[in-house]
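Suppose a colleague, Dr. K., hands you the sequence of a protein chain of 372 amino acids and asks what its three-dimensional shape might be. Before reaching for any lab equipment, you can write down a predicted structure in token form. Begin with the sequence itself:
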Amino acid sequence: MIIKKSMIFCFVMALVLMISGTAAAGTFTVNNSIGPVADFSSIQAAVNAALDGDIILVYPGTYNENVDVNKQLNITSTDGSAATHVTSASSNDDVFEVTADEVTISGFHVSGASSNNGIHLHEIENCIVINNKVSNNSFGIRLFRSSNNTLTNNTVSNNTGIGIYMSSSSNDTLTNNTVSNNAYEGIWLSSSSDSTLISNTVTNNNYGIFMRSSSDSTLISNTASNNNYGIVLSESSNNLIYNNYLNNSYNIGFYGTKPGNIWNTTKTAGTNIIGGPYLGGNYWAKPDGTGFSQTHGGVGGICDSPYSIDVNNIDYLPLCLVTHNPYDENEDYVIDIGEVSAAIDDYRTQGSTSIADINELIDMYRSGVPYC
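The predicted structure, expressed as tokens, is then:
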């Protein structure tokens, strides 16, 4: 009988543990101002009370605190960074320090860590930092020994050091971030590998993107403009860099860089960063109009000669601007039957179209390939 009771007790406890393990995430609210009544008046108090997997919703207001996040949490503002400001209570401390995996920080204006970091991901992985404005810190966003994290749609500006700093990290992805007016580097990768930078805009920094001892990373469709240097590679190799728009005093800088960096992909049909019909290399501009891509023409939006950055670094398919055919109403570099018909109608109404124009358009339509 005692054995049976013990077995039943063990079964019940196992069932309780199973149910608790699959329970839905809890949600806590934070508000220190007018508006809805909330569970807590500080973000840190909500973090302290929460369990792994919980959600913390923060109402608009200014929160003067340093938040230590040591649990798997989703911390999100209800109204975005324009209405929700977290400013450092101690300028020597991080505004947000994240030391747990799978944390989301979303929708805050983060500032005031004049001697430290706005958002610091420290030895963690699989975190998301999205839709934040990070300004007036020493470093804006810092990743240290962290991997598989995603930084998306953040505006990182006016920090006294570096905008986004990644150190000894790997497999992190930066997408659609705007990084501007930081005193030193916009984005710095140090001893990091397998990073992916896509569609970031990096402007008005001393160095746009600086890679030191970093390898096997991919930079695609980024805009680096009005920096002193656009991209700097220091002892960095085996990086793939293409379809970027570069318009800086010095687009590229090297410091003891190893060979093996690739500056173009295979010529492939698709809209490139300046609106041309093919992907290839990068667009090389200068503020004074003397950039390689600005002074060289070509076919299909690809310059007619490679751009030799130095003996070990060559962009074999640098981009150049293409003028649209005046009958290409869609501006897609392909003539369709509707555009042929429009040209014929123009001819019939004694417009500027000639028979030769129509025949050329028909040939373009029949070929089905970009005309440039």
